[in-house]
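Form 7-S
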Amino acid sequence: MSNQHDEKNIQYMPVQMMPMAPDDDEIDLLELWRTLMLKKWLVLGITLACLLAGTGYAFLAKPVYKTKAYFLPPSVADVGELNIISGSSAQYTPAIVYQMFLQNLCSRELRRKFFTKKGIFPVLTDGDKDAVVNQVFEKKFNEKLVLQKEDNKRDKNTSFYSLSFEWKDASRVADWTNMFVSMVVDYTRNTLINDMLTLKKNQIKYFEQCIASKRKTGRSLREDQILRFKEALGIARELGITADRLSDGDIRSVDKKINNNTLDKMAKRDVRPIAIYDIGRLYLQGSKALSAQIKAFQNRKLDDPFIPGLCELQEKLDTIKMATISQDHIQVAKIDQPAQVPDKPIKPKKRLIIALAGVVGLFMGIFAAFFMCFVQKMQKKEL
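Output:
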């Protein structure tokens, strides 16, 4: 019985809570807070120092300005004169001309030419004698002059482009951009006009050669015809044929191989034997007609009216010579908006810099506080 009573007493005995040792891996937030409170002036000091540094940089750093010029493709009327010489094939469409303009905007040769001609190098370097021209051109001018396609939510296929440039001077950044665009527009227009003038020159030369060739051929044909007539005249005189109207006896005596029945029918109808002329019997025209034709051919001063196709060639040549191209009527692109003088700089972003400086300063202060406490604990342990 005593054993059962002891077991019951054991079962109902209150369990005493033993104190647990803190785990080394657990973080004591209260201890961290106490550490921060002990070093609060250090944290505030570092944070304030970073804020002052960030604020000073934000207000003392030279601002950087950015501007943009916007472009659209030209209309059909803007490039119409370019196709007057090239013909109905419409060699130059608005899309082709606009693409040439955009390519020239990216041309390193044109950018280098503008960079040198406008004296931009000493301005970008602020008179630094150690600056290298190629590096300044690449880093401070070429990379800052950016051509990009603008997004359009209404029409994704639109050819809406912009050219942007950024630098420290607001007025110069706009002037340089507009001057460079103007230079590229003039260069592209002059290139197209020179191409058309070269094409015009080549076409004039081609048609002049065609006309000269036809005239030479016509002159040769006239001389050949005179020789044929002279030969036929000799035959006609030998045969005693003076007129082109021959009797049946004359025809039979001239050529026994000709069908008599056919010639009899032609004589009865008083029809000239033109079919005979067509196969080379020119002498049948008679010496009088042949002499007259020889005289007419020899006295002819101009063969042009008798040369087939010469009139059409002369008309084309005159049309090309009269074709003119006016620079004022050709536009390689529409300047939707020229570069404007920016009102606000894009750099430095003061609010962002000050906010980041405060956050960085706070974290640096907290880190310094914990690091100092750690160093002090290690020193106490060594003592």
